[in-house]
Amino acid sequence: MGKTAFLFPGQGSQSVGMMKEFYDDYESVRNVFRSADEALGFSITEMCFKGPEDQLRLTFNTQPAILTASIAAAEVLREHGVVPEIAAGHSLGEYSALVIAGALSFKDAVRIVRKRGQFMQEAVPVGQGSMAAVMGMDDSSLIVSICKKIELETGRAVQAVNFNCPGQVVIAGAAEGVDRAVEALKLAGAKRAVLLPVSAPFHSSLMQPASLRLAEEFKTISFKDAKLPVVANVTAEQVTVADEIEELLVRQAASPVLWDSSIRYMIDKGVECFIEVGPGKVLTGFNKKIAKDAAALNVEDNSSLEKTLAYFKEVR
Question: 232 and 181, same structural domain?
Answer without folding.
Answer: no
